[in-house]
Structures are given as C-alpha cells and as structure tokens.
Design brief:
Elements (H helix, E strand, L loop, with lengths): L2 H8 L7 H9 L1 H15 L9 H17 L6 H25 L9 H23 L7 H17 L11 H27 L6 H22 L5 H24 L9
Helix pairs in contact: 1-2, 2-3, 5-6, 5-8, 5-9, 6-7, 6-9, 7-9, 7-10, 8-9, 8-10, 9-10
Length: 259
C-alpha cells in the first residue's frame, strides 16, 4: 500500500481532494475500498425500523397467532400428556398380561418390582430432559444414565434362560414386542419435539423415554433372564432406539423454534 493509498484510507467518509481522487481512479485497491465503504454506508443503521409496508405481513401473522393462542402452553402440560400416554399403554398391556398369565419374569419379586420402579423413574427423568426448557444434562449425563440403566437391566434378571425357546428365536420375539409397544410413544414424543428447535441431546432423551415403555413391559413379561438375552433383546434395542431418535427428529419439520 502506497502513501496515497494510506491517505485515501484516512479520508474515508470525507470528500477526496483532486489529487487523491485522481489516484483512486487509477488504483484498483482504492476503488475496491471506496466501493465497499459506499455499500456499507447504504445499509440501514442497526435497529432502524423497516418501512411499515414491509412489516405489515409479519405483523398480521403475529397477531393471528396471538389471537389463536394468547398464552403459551407450559411444557409441563406436554410432559403430563406424554406421561399419561406412557402410563395408559403400560397399564393396559400389563392388565392383559396378567389376565393371560404372561407376567413371566422369574427373578425374585423384590428385584422385579425394584427394577420396574427404577425404569419408571428413568423414563420420567428422560422425558424431563427432552422437554424442560433449561437443559441441565448434556451428552455425558444422558449417556452415563442410559448405560447405567442398561447394566441394571442386564444384571437384574433371574440369570436363567428360557428352556422352551432358542436364543435367536427369543431375541427376535422380544425385539419385535419391545418395538411394537414403543412405537406409539416414540411417534407422540417426537411430535412434541417438533414444537421446539432441534437439539440432539433432547432427541436422544426422547427416544430413551419412549423406548422405556417397551423396556418395562418386556421386563415384567419375558421369562428369559439370562444376561445375554437381556443385553441383546432388552437393553440393546432400547439404547439403539435412543441413538436413532436424533436421526429421525432431524428429518422432521420444526413447527416452533423455542430453545
């Protein structure tokens, strides 16, 4: 940069002397500098109001949305709605299992009940992480919790394999059953997540919460308590469902962009 270029730079925003104007006309760098400065000056100042004609369509849409829903729905109502759906499915299926003598977990009753309560608490915690406005858990917290619950499921069985069914046949049956009972909760939960901006940790937590419905029902129904079966067909698919939930959510259209 020459001395004349420096003087042109110092004179930005002011009329150029004939000498500097002649230099700028013949200097490509100075011409680009002056053109860029003129373009910046033509932009509206930060915070400047747009012409009313530009804002009117946006204002009309905002007023229509406000009239349709003058008060925002609290996230707790959505959580209670999903919790009610989860509970209703689990209660109905459990009653059917009881009536048809299909509550077949052979572990001690205290272990069965205790692990079921833990899974219910985990489901509620995952739903809170998925929907609560303030995200207090990140990847480490959600991942540690999920792995811990999966280990308890694997170690909390009776330890006895089902003598009436082969390993592969039993795994296929349980994976199919767990997926069936988790499908409606997952669809409903991801539908709720469309009302806020996409966040991967929320989606993982949503998948784990919805998948816990099938996991709990498998826990009380399945007669195979061997660690291998529980890992492959109970805990494993539950973790996979949580991992797939962000992939599915990312492909759904967002209807709201709250944090």
């Amino acid at each position: 940069m020459s001395a004349e270029c420096t003087r042109v730079l110092d004179a930005l925003g002011q009329p150029l002397s004939p000498e500097l104007a002649a230099h700028a006309d013949g200097c490509a760098e100075c011409r680009a500098l002056l053109e860029g400065f003129d373009a910046l000056e033509s932009l509206p100042a930060p915070g400047a109001a747009r012409p009313p004609s530009d804002l009117e369509p946006v204002r009309a849409v905002a007023l229509d949305a406000l009239a349709a829903q003058p008060k925002a729905t609290p996230w707790t109502s959505e959580a209670w709605t999903l919790g009610g759906l989860y509970t209703g499915i689990m209660a109905l299926v459990t009653l059917v299992f009881a009536a048809t003598d299909r509550l077949c977990n052979t572990a001690p009753l205290g272990v069965v009940v205790g692990l079921a309560v833990l899974l219910l608490l985990s489901m509620g915690g995952a739903l809170w992480v998925a929907l609560a406005p303030a995200r207090r858990l990140g990847w480490l917290g959600v991942g540690t919790g999920a792995v811990g619950v999966a280990l308890l499921v694997v170690l909390g069985g009776s330890g006895l394999a089902n003598p009436h069914r082969g390993f592969v046949e039993g795994c296929v049956s349980c994976v199919r059953t767990g997926a069936l009972f988790s499908l409606l909760p997952l669809v409903a939960t991801l539908g709720m997540l469309r009302r806020m901006a996409f966040h991967a940790v929320r989606a993982v937590a949503a998948g784990l919460a919805a998948g816990a419905v099938g996991l709990i029902l498998l826990h009380v129904h399945c007669p195979d308590g061997s660690p291998g079966h529980l890992a492959v067909s109970h805990a494993g698919p539950w973790l996979v469902l949580g991992a797939l939930a962000p992939w599915v959510r990312a492909r759904l259209r967002t209807t709201g962009h709250a944090p």
